[in-house]
Amino acid sequence: MNMNTALKKAIQNLFALCDDEEKIRKETVDFLSYLSASDGKISDYESAFIKDYLSNDMTPAMLSEYIQENNTYSTAFENTVPETLKTVMDKDNAAYEEDNNMSASVSEAYIAVMECMGREFIVCDGKADDAEVCDYTTYTTMLRNYKKENAKFPGTVQSAIDIAGIHSSNNIETLNEQETKKETDDNNKKENLEDLLKELDAMVGLQSVKKDVNSLIHLQEIKRLRKERGLAEIPVSNHVVFYGNPGTGKTTVARLLGRIYHSMGILSKGHMVETDRAGMVAGYVGQTALKVKEVVEQALGGILFIDEAYSLTYSGSGEDYGQEAVDTLLKLMEDHRDDLIVIVAGYPELMAQFINSNPGLSSRFNKYIKFEDYNVQELGEIFKALCDKSGYKLTEEAGAFLKSVLENKYKNRGDNFANGRMVRNIFEKAIVNQADRLYYLKDKTNEQLATLEITDLQMI
Hints:
Layout: H1 3-17, H2 21-36, H3 44-54, H4 60-70, H5 75-78, H6 83-98, E1 104-105, H7 106-121, H8 130-150, E2 158-159, H9 177-184, H10 193-201, H11 207-228, E3 240-244, H12 250-263, E4 272-275, H13 287-299, E5 303-307, H14 322-335, E6 341-346, H15 348-356, H16 359-364, E7 367-371, H17 376-390, E8 393-394, H18 396-411, H19 420-438, H20 446-449, E9 451-452, H21 454-458
Parallel strand pairs: 1-2, 3-6, 3-7, 4-5, 5-6, 8-9
Helix pairs in contact: 1-7, 2-7, 2-8, 6-7, 7-8, 8-11, 10-12, 13-14, 17-18, 17-19
């Protein structure tokens, strides 16, 4: 069964599972009309897709009018959970409460069909671009988040329907049996994509970063699908700029992105090599190029993460070989573009100056991900995570004092605000203070060893 036939059957089966076919049919048309408006152009291919899959005969002009009348290309639409999904979620929850061995989820089927249909739709005219992928990500992420927040049944409960052997999950999986078979031999070497995305989702804060990373993943899948269908390659570079203050998770996310791309088959190894100016620039002519080649060779098959990358093009000395490092790096990025991803990171303004300093950099780094400062609540969550990991807990008094400390530091933060690093420093100083406090105490209890008191924080 080919994908076209399988998806049509999946849509029909979903309609049959839902009580109000007219309502769900409108919701699917709304979703596709929303995607159609993403790139500002409504094509004959898109209207033909809606007619073919949903039996809804619309010309491009009619589809444009539909979008305006129903306000589907709007923030309100992309933030509104479809009524059918709410209904089937309630039924799934009721079924699970009645039978904890429930094996099939209609709400999962609903999201699965929307995801698969959306992916097919944005490549139907051969012109998928960043805007379409981003809007697809926004809408399907909203559906996934609704399920995550409201489902009473485990995430392992599968879709009530099957799409060409592809079971739904919160990631984009292979869309044909041939590709699945080709990757089977490597499955034991690769991490599970769904598990990696859960790891990303579990990170404190970083909501916009998580959305951007999901967009990167979706774009990679669309690129693969277009190549498979014989469509023109999307001219998008894989290299990325991470910008934000220290301690906002840039290195952690970069390392996780390498593992994600390895699980998708984009990178052959998925490891990360971290370097900076000292690791790439030498003091003599010719040596810099050798250092850059060496670090790139170490990173082949994975991620080369260059921290404070702007230091390559700025030096206080008169003679500087940073430009040689940049020129060598650009050539090697081109030579190994199929199995190397470079992520450059640093402060926002300095990163902008760095990228704009060289046309080669600006052409290769066209994806920017902003890492915002953590807010007070998120900083507190980071501290709690450090406590949980190390087997510590705060007294109520200490917790209130910590909150006041974090509020003060956040309120008075400057350009060098250290975010998570600052929290880690507070935690490490607190456990040193606790050790000093307990050292001379006889007959220490486990409770005392595991508790941080307000005096441990006041001495910081």
